[in-house]
Design a protein that fits this description.
With about 180 residues, the protein is an alpha+beta fold. It is built from six helices and nine strands; from the N terminus they run ααββαααββββαβββ. It starts with a helix and ends in a 5-residue tail after the last strand. It binds zinc ion (ZN). Zinc ion binds near residues 32, 34, 57, 63 and 119.
Length: about 180
């Protein structure tokens, strides 16, 4: 789990054969703004790949290793909910997408760092295989309803046809993919 974000970046970079933005690769958890996460979406062949990088505060309400039993339970529950990724990222039924990979976890700051960050990210990597990917015209984010601490997601979308950015919020949780795929 520790390298989920790195993997997502590598995956995108490989798919695209263009370099991922430097700040995405080297961004430290301290740079995040609570309430605001990032989502990378890649569509290639019959595969939908999603990388999530959110402030842990948005998902857990805390940004440190869980200390109490309640915090441990909260972390386990959050991981389980994210891994149930078809409810977090809802694809149109006629696109016939099946979840084939789901990883999620708390990225803890390096305790050996000279100045340990007070922030921590929650990351996830997800893959769906779709029977009719041309019908993948939208993605509805159950993310906001599941994690009330989350406010918005800055979204990067990369397909064989296009590269673009979007934003989704609690009040606008649908990502329109028409014409991109
Ligand atoms: Zn933070």
């Amino acid at each position: 789990m520790p390298h989920a974000r790195t993997l997502a970046c590598l995956m995108l970079a490989t798919l695209l054969a263009v370099p991922a933005p430097a700040q995405a690769q080297h961004r430290h958890a301290g740079a995040h703004v609570h309430g605001s996460g990032k989502l990378d979406i890649a569509i290639e062949g019959n595969k939908l790949s999603i990388g999530l990088d959110s402030p842990a505060d948005d998902i857990l309400g805390f940004e440190h290793a869980p200390k109490t039993a309640a915090q441990k339970a909260k972390l386990e529950k959050a991981v389980a909910r994210l891994k149930d990724a078809a409810t977090i990222f809802k694809t149109p039924a006629d696109a016939a997408c099946n979840l084939i990979k789901a990883e999620a976890g708390l990225e803890q700051p390096d305790p050996k760092a000279a100045k340990p960050s007070e922030h921590a990210d929650f990351t996830g990597a997800f893959e769906f295989e779709c029977g009719a990917i041309a019908k993948l015209t939208s993605l509805d984010l159950g993310y906001f309803a599941t994690f009330p601490g989350a406010g918005k997601l800055a979204i990067t979308i990369v397909t064989t046809k296009a590269q673009t950015t979007r934003e989704a919020t609690k009040s606008k949780p649908r990502i329109d993919l028409k014409g991109l795929n």
